[in-house]
Amino acid sequence: MVMHYGACIIIHVPLIDLPYGIGYDSQINLKYQQTGRESRRLNQSAISHDCGKRSIMYRIVFLSLLTLLLAPTVFAQKLPPQPTPEEYGEMLETWSTLPPEQDECVGANLITNPSFEGQYSSYTPDPAHPDCPWGTCGSAQMADNWTPYWKSHNPSDPDWIYRMPEWKPAESHFTNPTRVRTGERAQQWFTFFGTHQAGIFQRVSNVSPGASLCLSIWGHAWSNNSDDPYTNPNDHGFLNQQIGIDPTGGTDYLSPNVVWTDPVTQYDEYGLFKLETTAQSSSVTVFFHSEPLWAYKHNDVYWDDAILSVVYHEPATMTVTPQWIGLQAQEAEPVVQTETVDVTIENAPTMDWDAQILPGSTFMPDLRQQGDQLLLDVDSTGMPAGGYRANLEISAEDPTIDGGRQYITVDLNIAPSDPVVVASPSQFVFMTDSADSATASSQIDIHFGSDLTWTASISEPVRLQEFPIVFTSDTGQSGDRLEFTAFSAGLQTGTYTTTILVEAPNSATRAEIPVQFIVVEQQFDVWLPMLRR
Q1: Strands 336-346 and 317-321
Q2: Distance (Å, rounded) from C-alpha 473 to C-alpha 337?
Q3: Composition of the chain by helix, strand, coil, percent to 5
Q4: What are residue 272's DSSP bridge partners?
């Protein structure tokens, strides 16, 4: 009510919706102890200093009546409980702050009135809200295009729990600390000696489903039990702030669809809150939220300069190199070989990929993923000679991206080993006289060529014409025995040496069997062979 007394104007503020405690900021703006930034604004706005003695008289009358009306409330209420040192220490262990060096979102801003400028007006809920029994919430002064929300106080709880905050504009002339980041105003809300769970939201339309969205806003808080405008770092109410997006366009901040940042404290200076998600509808809703853990005298939050933009990413692509691997091995020399395939996904650094061997492959290399590489371990042990092929599929976590599903062919060729001719025994020494002969045999094996035929012959002997060797058969298969007879008849005493050669076609080696005759004077009737391998 405004009353005129000559040249004087006295403003009588109606006493309605009195909240908890004498200092609680409500529709009657009684929170006048906010340091230099809001000191004595009731006196400055209500009473003219030039009205003379009559104005002073009415001021005294008004303040006296106000004190009498509020005195029962002040003395009937106790201050909210404060955390014990143990409780405060436990909260300090989980106290989180904003991550450093974040950048604002860029691109066309989809938010209307993102800096909370212009005229503020009382919020009128539709349908009516029980916390605003006169229809309009006079204590919720909102920037255009923004809507408040809050958790209502449960009457069965103490008065300080989950109070309805007061929303109002923060003014740019408060600079110690700065409460407005850019322009003339920022959105502020607070509770006085009370906790709250509250915020503001705006629903944004004309969004393409599937679009990548970036939301950023600058925010900070003031939480103190004294009127010092700077938060006491060792005594504050853990006033957490966070931002969220409902990608489906819902307006219920408690919906499980809302994607939230982690709650953090950001005191006394503006810090950047940032969140990215994907739109699931043609409308999305942005939320800016706060919740103190303790009912400190001042629990104030400030928000300014919001941006919601569409993030245009370069399309994700996957490249795989090489896409063909050729390996060689020998049947006789088993080997483990490791090959490396590079898998790179660009423009999607968190996207994963996997690899599998496709059905129809004729051998199974072991697959190992190591960072951006696929390692293939190929063990040819026990594999017979022949050609083998493994077909591999590498798929990105989102196989619809460019190159998101690719294939690799791994060919393994195991060559048959060269035949190896082995004779056992591998040499012979005979002691006889000049009138005798000796018969012996050696088993001939052809390793890695069991189907080959061997052939035996005599190398150039010493005095060959005097040292004849006769084969029972000079050919055979692997595992057959080579039988021969050596004749010493007519030889003079002495030592005679020759070599039996056993060969197989395409063999890398041949068996050379030394044969030695030691001829002594004829003095016994039986020859004495000595075999030495």
Answers
A1: antiparallel
A2: 45
A3: 10, 45, 45
A4: 218
Q: pLDDT tens digit string along 383-398?
A: 988 999 999 999 999 9
Alpha carbons 290 and 187: distance in angstroms, whole number: 13
Percent of the chain with pLDDT over 70: 82
Structure confidence by residue, pLDDT tens digits, 313-335: 788 999 999 999 999 998 878 89
Q: Are 290 and 151 in contact (CB under 8 A)?
A: no
Residue 357 has pLDDT above 50, yes or no: yes
Asked if residue 112 has pLDDT above 70, the reply is: yes
Whole-number mean pLDDT of the chain?
84
- pLDDT tens per residue across span 270-292: 999 999 999 999 999 999 999 99
The per-residue b/e assignment along 64-98, b for 16 or more CB within 10 angstroms, e otherwise, is eebeeeeeeeeeeeeebeebeeeeeeeeeeeeeeb
- Reported as half-sphere exposure (CB side, CA atoms, 13 A), residue 119 has a value of 3
Terminal-residue alpha carbon distance, the chain:
128
| 218, amino acid identity | W
How far apart are alpha carbons 245 and 264 in whole angstroms? 17
Q: Radius of gyration over alpha carbons of the chain, in Å? A: 49
Spatial contact of 38 and 45, defined as CB atoms under 8 Å apart = no
Mean pLDDT of 88-103: 86
Q: How far apart are CA 380 and CA 331, in angstroms?
A: 8
Q: Is 406 left (phi over 0), alpha (psi -120 to 50) or beta?
A: beta
CB 286 within 8 A of CB 325: no
Whether the CB-CB separation of 124 and 135 falls below 8 Å is answered with: yes
User: Residue 267 has what DSSP assignment?
Assistant: B
pLDDT per residue as tens digits for the range 516-531 = 888 887 654 444 454 4
Q: What is the mean pLDDT of residues 490-512?
A: 85
Rounded CA gap, 365 and 229, in Å? Answer: 68
Residue 434: both structure tokens together: 């000049």
What residues form DSSP beta bridges with 356? 393
pLDDT recorded at residue 39: 38
The residues facing 343 across adjacent strands are 320
The secondary structure element, H or E, covering residue 446 is strand 437-447
Tokens encoding 106: 């860029």
| SS3 of residue 85 by DSSP | helix
Please report the beta strands in 163-211, taking only residues with DSSP state E, as ranges in sequence order. Answer: 166-171, 185-192, 198-204
Task: Single out the residue of 274, 289, 275 nearest to residue 239, CA to CA.
Answer: 289
DSSP summary character for residue 68? H
CA angle (405 as vertex; 349, 410 as ends), nearest 5: 110
Q: How far apart, in whole angstroms, are the C-alpha atoms of residue 74 and residue 282?
A: 51
Nearest Cα to Cα of residue 97 among 263, 295, 317, 322: 263
Contact 312, 284 (CB under 8 A): no
